[in-house]
Amino acid sequence: MVGVLKLFSWVYDIAEVIFAEYMIMPFLMVVLYFIIRIFKLKSPFQKRNIVSKKDTEFGIIVTAYRDTKFILPLIDSVLRQKYQNFYLYVVADDCSEPINGIDDQRIHVLTPPQELGSKVKSIDFAIASFVQAHDAIVILDDNCLLHPQFLWVINQYFQKGYKVVQSAFKPKNSESSIARMDAIGDIYNFFMQKDMRMRLGLSSTIWGSGVAVDLPLYKGVIYTDFLGGFDKKLQAYLVMHTDKIAYACNAILYDEKVNNPHSLVNQRTRWISSYFKYFKESFLVFINGVRKFNFNLTFFGFYLLRPPLFSVLFISVLFTLINYFIHPVLFYIWLSLIFSFIFAFIIIVLLKSRNFKSLKVIFRLPVFIFYQVLAMLSQRKVKHSFLKTENTNAIYIEHLLGKMEGENSFTPDKIDNC
User: Fold this and answer.
1) CATH entry, 48-258+398-409, from 3.30.200.20, 3.90.550.10, 3.40.50.2300, 3.30.70.260
2) Which residues are within 8 A (CB) of 144 and not within 5 positions of it... i.e. 6 or more apart?
């Protein structure tokens, strides 16, 4: 019995250390951000030399499932690119509405003979239909739009030797409170998982859209599950098979935010499910990093293992309450960690949104957390359904940029100055 209690105490102490690290990291990242900005330290991108002046030929893959209303606006944003060395493949999976009015030989609309019901299968179908072997692929969701400089910026990174580049997301819509809360979540996640890691010379995480990958490198990944969370499997493979995953902060993709609770719960149910589904891959990244004394892999794997943020907050509050009764000193430490996290979260949102109105939305985040708890309790659904997120905001890039003052003022000298 004594041995069991000692083992429990040991596990409890380790868990406290791990979750304390998760809680303090946002504050540390904010401090490092200001140090980098104040001393004007060069980023890894700025330090890298150009290894090839070749213009990368991109095979852009758009995956559409049972809905084509966003395709023409997306194609329009692609055709408006400053950088024109691309081919575009639209996989219209189980789409009843035809896609008409396209008059460009680089654009190919592909209709699978039977329903694929999987983003991975749609991507594979597109690659199998390539008219020639492109240098890299760019994976896009059908409901996004690209800034006119998107491909031009991505190409600069490939010319400097990066083989995987994740773009930046900005909200395409922000009319509802749910959409604004979703956008704030993106601001925090992109700062922590992409922006600061890139500034520190570490690998960025990737998302399932807006990511450019060297084609031979992508072909090396082997999927065993096709229902969801493919980006978790993909990033675990990529981080172990390339030097660094880059984040291009000025390659801007406009992403549609969820507008209603039902879509939000479906989306987060899918995301939480992918965390558990690919936990093994995350653990292997961490173990490989430790074994190879590779800090980049170790750090990457450690944060892949981090549970969803709302559960980290819940467990941290639990540790605080427990220590109130058993360890007063640790109680105050945990209280400080929670306040440091809240402070850092607010600073990150203000830094990246540059809008004090965002503070109003922060006070509604408990509602957002509630919906994520519902998503956690809805995990059975994802085993039997793709749980497609419903989107409604079809808009053209010219109209969108016209509403956003300053977005058109992009200049080449701002390529890595975000």
Assistant:
1) 3.90.550.10
2) 70, 74, 172, 209, 210, 253, 254, 255, 256
